[in-house]
Amino acid sequence: MTRELSRSSRKKVQSLTELLQLTGCADVNDLQALIESEMSTDPLFVDMGADMTSLQFYTESSGYELPWPFEVGRFWRAIDDLNTDLLHHAEAQGLPEWDSAQAAARDDDPHSIIGDATNDLAEFFGLGLDTFVDHVGGGWFPQDDSELVGLHEQTYRWYGSGQPLQVLLGIGRDEAVVAEPIEHGAGLAGPAWLERGRAEHVLLRREGTLRRLSEQVRDMETLVRSDLHFCAGCRVVLSRGRANQQCRSCLGRYYGMIVD
Q1: How does pLDDT run across 124-179, given as a tens digit for each residue?
Q2: What confidence tens digit (pLDDT) does each residue in 19-60 have?
Q3: CB atoms within 10 A of CB 248
Q4: Whose CA is closest to 157, among 94, 233, 68?
Q5: CB of 160 closer than 8 Å to CB of 148
Q6: Strand locations in the chain, DSSP E?
Q7: CA triplet 190, 194, 197: central angle to 5 degrees?
Q8: Where are the domains of the chain?
Q9: DSSP secondary structure letters along 220-237
């Protein structure tokens, strides 16, 4: 059976031996080489599973399992789907990462736009910059995900917006995560570490993705802003939870305190 015919075939493959015959492969190594020839990137692994009840092929970032029996066409479609997954993973991983030097520059100048990833995110979503900002806002800067607690279920690129942070946005292969930023040990020099609080997941590349993303970002902003406090002196926004405190400038200006 030719590859073109087998892609649309509904013939059931009952075993590895039958699949090897249909694909013209001599053994599993041959089958792996065949699948790799169809792949766009990433090392590939092929396995029969511990109980030999399925065909498994996977990369470091994605994979598929086909329980026996399965249609010949499903085998080829799974390879196509895996290629699509890898493409989406590469797109997410191609977004700007946290950069310590850029972060330090922003610490020195809170109004700095060094490292602003808003335009990159707009391109990722296939939107014009103005449309993206209208729906999701701007001022998105990469976050150090090594300091974000509990974010190991999938590899994301993480961004935060607001001063202090009012919303976190994680971009993964198949979904975005809108999350509440929780600053631990926050003082005048900023948070000691950052944790993801409440989170909402939004599937990517769906008809309602932008609408749902916009709703979740706005809801998270409302939640966080309700807990913001302001300097008792000049009313500048302080970190969350610092009620009835004063900012660094006011402590120096009015009380003669020098704060590092």
Answers
A1: 999 999 999 999 999 999 988 776 655 544 578 999 998 778 899 999 999 999 99
A2: 998 888 999 999 999 888 887 666 788 888 767 889 998 888
A3: 16
A4: 94
A5: no
A6: 12-13, 45-47, 54-58, 63-67, 70-71, 141-142, 148-149, 157-161, 167-171, 175-184, 193-203
A7: 130
A8: 3-92, 96-227, 228-260
A9: HHHHHHTT--B-TTT--B
Using CA atoms in the order 96, 97, 100, 106, what is the torsion angle rounded to 10 degrees?
40
User: Which residue's structure tokens are 């600053």?
Assistant: 183
3 state DSSP class of 36: helix
What amino acid is encoded at 125 in this protein?
F
Task: Answer yes or no: are the C-beta atoms of 88 and 29 closer than 8 Å.
Answer: no
Amino acid at 157: R
Local structure of residue 126 (DSSP, 8 states): T
Q: pTM of the full predicted structure?
A: 0.76
Find out whether 177 and 98 touch, Cβ atoms under 8 Å.
Answer: no
